[in-house]
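Dear colleagues,

As part of the handover before I leave the project, I'm documenting each prediction I ran so the next person doesn't have to rerun anything. This entry is a single chain, and its sequence is reproduced below.
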Amino acid sequence: MMDSRARDEAAQWFVRLQEADLSSAERQRFDAWRNERPEHQYEFDVLQGMWSAADLLPKARLQALCEAPVERPRCRAVVRYAVAASVVAIALGLGLFSGLDQPTPYSAQFSTRVGEHRQVALPDGSVMDLNSRSVVAVHYEKGRRGVEIKQGEAMFSVEHDTRRPFIVVAGAGQVTVTGTRFDVRRDDDQTRVVVEAGTVKVQGRSTDQRVTLTAGRGTHVDSQGQVAAAYAVNADELTAWRSGKLVFNNATLGEVAREVSRYREQPLRVSTAAVSNLRLTSVFNARDTDALLKALPHILPVALRSLPDGSQEIISR
């Protein structure tokens, strides 16, 4: 459960940003507060998403929802925010944002640092979870909810809206849905898509190449835009990063090194193809990749060596 103090502080900062321009000193204090704890950034993002969603409501509907009596506030700014946030929350719960003819455009970009996970509430009620080292741009417009994964991985829980499809672009691949739950990961050589619930359509560079995925199915799109046929996946394993776990089920050390590198300042390398093809099955803590590296020589015939640039390499033992 999120700290209520963080939520209250986020509300105060949010209202101040809405009502007046901050001075340079105030902006520095806001940035320091936002970066102090992950909860601060999370709570502020939630408020920002709800506020953007409020703009999508017709004025008459918003005024009607605000007619409920409110107790006398001790802090006018905080309660003013609380009323607006409550209205937006009610509207989201009733699905009032779905299918509006002229939604307000929305654009934003979100990113995560090494080892950071971040959840973002979007204006339509959809939610995306960002994995470590991810950069995602969001652009909503009439008839389309667009997301571009510029780097990394994101899990999406999409609110159903048949009139505005949710489209995710990542590398040479494109994923189109109206409402579902799925994961998209962008690597240098391919984009992988995994569906946890619902149905998605995955397209490559050619409109003739499309694959339909249902729950428990996945595919990948290579750098040339070629889409692989759908195949069975373990969605729980592939999205275990959301709970801070790295799950490897008969994975090659090459795959392990690429995954671990997402959670380290310096990349983990593999010395030879023979070492890269060794297989590993185990579960590790994504927040303690050093423990994984210490365990490897006890599991497989390998050793680790440090390179001059500070990175580490897995070698044969």
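Residues 106-236 form a domain with the Jelly Rolls fold (CATH 2.60.120.1440). Confidence is low (pLDDT under 50) at residues 70-80, 94-101.

All the best with the project,
I.
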